[in-house]
Amino acid sequence: MVSLKRIRESSAEIRRLNERIGQTVLTRSNSPAEREAWERACAEFHQRFDSLAFPGGHEVLDRIRADDPSAVEAAVSFLVADPYHFRSGYLKEYLWRWLPHCSLTSSARTRLEHAALKYLDRRISREFWNMCKAMALLGRSEFWATVCAKSQIVGTPEAFRAVCLLTYGADVHAGARLRRSIYHGWMTRKPA
Length: 192
Fold this sequence. Notes:
- By secondary structure, this protein is mainly alpha-helical.
- It has a domain at 55-188.
- 74% of the residues lie in helices and 0% in strands.
- It has helices at 4-25, 32-53, 57-63, 69-81, 88-98, 106-119, 128-138, 141-151, 157-170, 172-188.
- Helix 7 (128-138) crosses helix 9 (157-170) and helix 8 (141-151) crosses helix 9 (157-170).
- The longest helix is centred in the N-terminal third of the chain and has 22 residues, at 4-25.
């Protein structure tokens, strides 16, 4: 089993390496030594990114589509750990898209349900909608009862996100229409 602590530590290391690039880029034009420091920061980031971004690197990530049990376990652990680093949203989006096609244990489904419920407590991010589509296929009755209860807290952002999830759970096409209307509203809203 992949350690959630290790996933979070790797994510923190990616953020640190990325911040180092951000700091050195500001002074890279001042001197050859500072340009070299920036180049070293970039090289280290790119050299270590694959092994830090996902447990086992790109090799394990590729095995998810083949329904490899250890890769599926790494994917579930990654979503439960919910790391935040450069490109982590794309990874989560990919994982939510592919996990419904994999053989999942009851324990893995339960952990994914808990991970999905955490999405209701924060703003909508790029992987939110793929999580909704995945949970429409993976969610069990207890999960949907919890989502329904969260949707009843009128006027809260959590309730709105729960309604979005329930819409996908009832009908994926209706969920997609809701998503488009939300994005259209965001894009056409006039700045204050």
